[in-house]
Amino acid sequence: MTFLAVLCLLAAPVPSSADRPFILLQSTTSTQNSGLLDAILPQFTALSGLEIRVVAVGTGQALRNAQNGDGDVVLVHSRLAEEAFVKAGYGVARQDVMYNDFVIIGPESDPAGIAGAATPFDALKRIAEKRALFVSRGDESGTHQAELRLWAETGEMPSGPWYREVGAGMGTTINITVGMAAYTLTDRATWTAFGNQSDLRILYENHPSLFNPYGVIVVNPERHPHVKVEAAQDFVDWLVGPGGQAAIAGYRVDGQQVFFPNADAQSGS
Amino acid sequence: MSGFTEELAGALALIFSGDAALWAVVGLSLQVSLSAVLIAAAIGMPLGASLAVFRFPGRGAVQVLVDTLMGLPPVVIGLMVYVILSRSGPLGVLNLLYTPTAMIIAQVILVTPIIAALTRQAVAASHEEYGEQLASFGLSPRAALATLIWEARPAIITALLAGFGRAVAEVGAVMIVGGNIAHVTRVMTTTIALETSKGNLALALALGVILLVLALGVTLAVRLLQGGPQDTRAIS
Question: Which domains does chain A have, with CATH numbers?
């Protein structure tokens, strides 16, 4: 029975930080893994006293969680899915926040020779023709949806043993890509901040089709009355306002800017 | 590879230098998993002992159910608890999703079948040994059960440790119902998953070492506190 007594002692009440007001942000792995949210959210919390609790999952899952009412605000990157979310009445409005871009990474030796490709579609075509290993997120995330749009442009959807859908987050996918010496599509922020790059390199970059915009949406209180809509709106106002935009522009990974604020260019929802 | 070894050494040094944020994560892991084991023991020990001693209709079915639940993947438990605790779920109004309480609930579901099944086995053995003796004392069923559990305590402590090991090492369920929120629901295993996904493999591995040390510490503490040689059986 000593054991149980010790257990009781050790299992003292779980601390709750519920005394401080907070909102729940459903966001994507790229904003968390790149270190952006860790850098900018404390600035907002210091100003407002409002804590932002981040659940970082893929864009698809973030929107689904928010649709279930398990979040006050979403910050994701899949424009079409975001607009559908708002149109279905789950979100109040979508606002532009920032963008970065996608890059195609692969082994330094570049077996499919994509480094000289003219377009990302051309690069993917070369990978498919060479049957070179390509790792796909396969998780309906924003990056996965962008990848599928790029493949659609090549005229043929990928299939075959060389095309590996791993159903994982961006970082895990890069780890797998490293292990297989394969190609994959990643956002630049996650890649730049990634600690296990091994001998992978950016082999294709800088094309308008690789544009990767992020949007922010307050969850609709008409669907979910418990949503802390005022606090969530305060956060969104800061994020798209001068303070938040400057914080995003100021964030550096290894001296490199990886997110570019663009809230000024917004057209609302 | 030498770069990695260096990194690992650096990560371990950082960890053992007593980083406050890290120790908060370790503390939360312990609190969540020990709470879960405590609750699971309160349910699983009487349940397992009853299954070993009493004959009642449906006993076989319950036994099969308990054994089957031992094999339930944590991620499925996480999903079930998410669906129930989600704002759109039946218990959404309780507002428990993404809290340590939600993680405890998931781990209780994970651990209870293990404790129940192992307790059943242990108590069945001690029942065989002392059952008739106890019956001759004319003890109430409840008192007899308590005595049998007490007699089987070495095996039951092993069961509790197995339950704790499963709870503290689990990642899939707590990731879904806890959300891996920094300072709120981030525990050892979800931190390891996060650092791995950032490509910080050395740091992730170093955290794994801590988890191992933690498990060792709990095991040693329990063995120590168990006190006295295990074969002095004082039945009175």
Answer: 21-100+212-265 (3.40.190.10), 101-210 (3.40.190.10)
Q: Is B77 exposed, middle or buried (0-12, 13-18, 19+ CB in 10 A)?
A: buried
Number of structural domains chain B divides into: 1
Look at phi and psi of residue A268 and say left if phi exceeds 0, alpha if psi is from -120 to 50, else beta.
left
Identify all chain B residues contacting A37, using CB atoms and an 8 Å cutoff. Answer: none
- Residue-wise pLDDT for B61-98, tens only, equals 999 999 999 989 999 999 999 999 999 999 999 999 99
Does some domain include residue B122? yes
Beta carbons of A11 and B226 less than 8 Å apart: no
User: Average pLDDT per run of 10 along chain A, which is 269 residues long?
Assistant: 43 52 94 94 96 95 96 96 96 96 97 95 97 95 95 95 94 95 96 93 96 97 95 97 96 93 65
Q: What is the nearest CA distance from B182 to chain A, expressed in angstroms?
A: 7
A45 shares contact with chain B (CB less than 8 Å):
no
User: Complex ipTM, two decimals?
Assistant: 0.82
Judge: A55–B98 Cβ closer than 8 Å, yes or no: yes
> Is A202 within 8 Å of chain B by CB?
no
Beta strands in B37-134 (DSSP E): none
The whole-angstrom distance between B193's CA and the closest CA on chain A is 9
Q: What is the value of pTM for the model shown?
A: 0.86
